[in-house]
């Protein structure tokens, strides 16, 4: 019997942690990856490596090619340094250089890393059949996502048999603070790590943060009580969804699963009474199968 490399905690653990610390603060822990300038006085921090990874992360889902000038603008890394980094990353296969355009695209090296993450964790092969079954049963889109800074990135998307309502594919990004899948991810974090993430989100949203934080706190309280988070017509006025976290390796890694569709069809009542319990059960089933090492 195949045993996966990711071992989850018990499905009820996040709610207990959350109830103890929605507003916990820990200035020593950041919940999301820092930028290339965050090394401070840490002598173990390799700045050149961090900057190279920042360049790879600068490519969004809609970016086919980026030049050194645009990469410098997005990352804040000086252009001469960017030129050296892109040359090195191209030699290593993480970028591909298009000479007629004088720009770069992601290479096979970057793609291989992503595929290795998905295959090594084991969660994709465990979650996909369960996700697809729920998508067929509810005629809604079901997705699995991981965090990247202030956004969630879809790793797997399962569509219903009917007309597609949410035309989102793997690689699509949703805002962490205003989407159900992002709120559920936050709910699954340990309180200290969550506090670091919330601090980063506050810096990102600035003046908009108080209103966003109020709704986010309500979602976290809802999770502590019901085991799922919802968002009705928030990050996109046409879309509603509900989500639950999948907590792996004792909390070291947290993913999130959501189910969603058109806001005109999925009212808050439907999300709370029907889809919420079902996505919570889905997350618990995924954690349970990984816990038992079943593929």
Automatic annotation (TrEMBL):
Matching Pfam families: HTH_IclR, IclR_C
Limits of the HTH iclR-type domain: 46-108
Sequence ranges assigned to domain IclR-ED in this UniProt record: 109-292
Ribosomal protein as UniProt keyword: no
Xref: InterPro entries: GAF-like_dom_sf (IPR029016), HTH_MetabolicPath_Reg (IPR050707), Tscrpt_reg_IclR_C (IPR014757), Tscrpt_reg_IclR_N (IPR005471), WH-like_DNA-bd_sf (IPR036388), WH_DNA-bd_sf (IPR036390)
Keyword Iron-sulfur: no
Keywords assigned: DNA-binding, Transcription, Transcription regulation
Name recorded for this polypeptide: HTH-type transcriptional regulator TsaQ1/TsaQ2
Species of provenance: Cupriavidus respiraculi
């Amino acid at each position: 019997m195949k045993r996966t490399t990711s071992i989850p905690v018990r499905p009820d653990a996040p709610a207990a942690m959350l109830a103890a610390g929605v507003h916990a603060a820990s200035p020593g822990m950041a919940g999301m990856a820092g930028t290339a300038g965050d090394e401070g006085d840490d002598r173990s921090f390799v700045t050149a490596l961090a900057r190279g990874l920042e360049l790879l992360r600068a490519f969004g889902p809609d970016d086919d090619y980026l030049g050194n000038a645009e990469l410098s603008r997005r990352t804040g890394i000086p252009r001469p340094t960017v030129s050296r980094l892109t040359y090195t990353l191209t030699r290593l296969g993480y970028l591909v250089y298009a000479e007629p355009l004088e720009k770069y695209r992601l290479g096979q090296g970057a793609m291989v890393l992503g595929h290795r993450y998905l295959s090594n964790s084991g969660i994709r092969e465990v979650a996909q059949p369960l996700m697809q079954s729920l998508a067929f049963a509810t005629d809604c889109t079901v997705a699995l996502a991981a965090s990247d800074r202030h956004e969630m990135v879809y790793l797997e998307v399962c569509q219903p048999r009917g007309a597609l309502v949410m035309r989102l594919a793997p690689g699509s990004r949703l805002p962490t603070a205003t989407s159900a899948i992002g709120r559920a991810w936050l709910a699954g974090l340990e309180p200290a790590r969550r506090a670091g993430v919330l601090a980063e989100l506050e810096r990102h949203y600035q003046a908009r943060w108080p209103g966003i934080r109020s709704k986010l706190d309500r979602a976290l309280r809802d999770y502590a009580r019901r085991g799922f988070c919802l968002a009705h017509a928030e990050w996109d006025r046409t879309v509603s969804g509900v989500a639950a976290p999948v907590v792996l390796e004792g909390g070291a890694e947290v993913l999130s699963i959501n189910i969603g569709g058109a806001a005109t069809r999925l009212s808050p009542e439907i999300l709370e009474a029907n889809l919420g319990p079902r996505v919570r059960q889905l997350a618990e089933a995924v954690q349970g199968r990984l816990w038992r090492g079943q593929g």
